[in-house]
Amino acid sequence: MNLMEDLKAYVDGELSPERQSEIESAMEQDERLRQELEEIRVLSRLIGDCVVEPEPAGLERTLVLLEARKTKPFLTRLFTEPKRFGWVYAMAAFVLVAAIFPNVVNNSRADESAVAMDTATAATSKGVASSPSVDRQDRAEAPAEDAKSVYGYVGSSTERQDPSLAEGGLNGAPEMSLKRPSRTGFSGKISAGASAPSASGGVGVTGTTPGTPAPESNQAPGRVKKKGEMFRPFLVRTSEIALRVESVQKAQTEAENVAKSFGGYVEDSSGSAYQENAPTAQLTLRIPEPRFQQALLRLRSLGTVIASSVTGTDVTAEVADSEARLRVMRAEEESYVNMLKDSHKVTDSLEIKDRLSQVRQQIESLDAQRKSLRNQATYSTITLSLSQTAEVKAPPKVVKPTWFDRAWGGATERASGLGKWLAEVGMNLLVLSPIWLPVVVGLWWLGRRGSKMRG
Amino acid sequence: MQAVQEESMRRALDIAEIAKQHYPLVFRFCARRVGVDSAQDAAQETFITAQRVIKNFRGESTLRTWLLGIAHNECRRLSRSRRIEAPAIELRDTPDDAPFEQMIVDRHALSEALNKLSPEHREVVLLHEVDGLSYDEAAAVIGVPAGTVKSRLHHAFLNLRKSLQEYSGGVR
Fold first, then answer.
1. What gap in Å lies between CA B154 and CA B161, rounded to an integer?
2. Residue B91: which of A51, A57, A70 has the nearest Cβ?
3. Reported ipTM exceeds the 0.85 cut
């Protein structure tokens, strides 16, 4: 080994005794080596003696700090030395964000879904922004009243109730939607008729018969009034009611009696005893329009309402149109008749007769259409479905979770999500390490090399 | 007897006692690496870290070496975070009664030669010549083998002598 390389270590006494002896024997023979050794020794002593020793400061402060830290628990230091435990705050913030963010996203999605559902419900209600559920019936009735005040009546209403809930003695969560009729065809002032009483059993149909004459009224619908009198619209109203009854046979008889008592009749009737325990029957009843609402209430009281809907179609425009056209046609007919009387030529008479025939055909057609519409408006249709089933078991009682259950469930779910996410990140880093690891190592090496070059 | 030994060990490892005993050494060590202004912070952090990890001290090295090792890491961390350049090594003026050998070497030349050393060479020179650590202790502080310390010192002194010769040649 080169002796020169060990000279410094020899001066410092860091060599093994053997190596030390070797150097000493070499120095006895080599003057240059001795000179080198002396130079190193002088330089070494000079550096040790001449380098400025800075005066220490800050011992007291350090001692105070050490004493204070000795007695403080970790949590206290966490808050009193935020800079030192910045990483704890960063981790806490990360966990908080990771825990809250998915929840916020879920909530916003839920809100969006709720809004979408409300919008959908509003869309089906066609005009009246009604609440979809009957447990919020007050809210549903409010727009119905609003509709009445503006348009005179509620065009249609639907109501649906979960039969199992109804049978279980629960009020359930029946749904109700309302439809607002079009104003098309209303040329005069629209009157608001008598509002129907609320339905029995806490689920009332808010669809009323305003715009149609009250039972005691003797005014015919659609009759064109004289100046200053109110115009009554023609309504073709149909209702579908599904009832669960104790005895289908008995209820069928009662329904027929109801139709007769209100001056109506049974248009169609069918029954099925396919299952002994669950016979069904369907009846189509025609009830005079003014007594439609009363009949409806009587029929609903025969059993438990499972579903109910009332739809009303305003045919006033069609009736008015056909009547106007009829008047024109009759005037035309009259003029042709006069022309025929005055005609002297055979060819003219034939042509006029031909025209007269066409006009009369049109008059007949319009008159039939008008009568049909009037008939439909005079008698409303109620389709009644009766069913009798075996007892339906009430659904198991749902235990409402406490706030703790919800909080615990949410926290564990989020922790699980966070764990999965971290695992995914770890796996991705591991799998993609052949790509990113060389880059990182290269950058680190370049940085290190750069700092060395600067140094 | 055992209780007495435990008590003496407990007192020996009491961080306040250690700080009182070794603070000047640690402060000077830090001052030469991050400057006097930041030396207080570095020394303070060193003892705070020591307080936290003293339970892991197994006595395999001397307490001084262990503390300087922590100080070395704290100085590096502080240098990076505050972007501190290594301060210039300052030399005292030669007193009138200084030995002849001190009189013949130009202080300015020596200071320049020391400050021209690479960080690795400068580190071992400071540890061995100024702080007075042995090769093994210096190796433990900076985390390299003792042979590396020896080699670096040899080359550091070669560079120092070369710089001084160039300076004296230039002056002549």
1. 11
2. A51
3. no
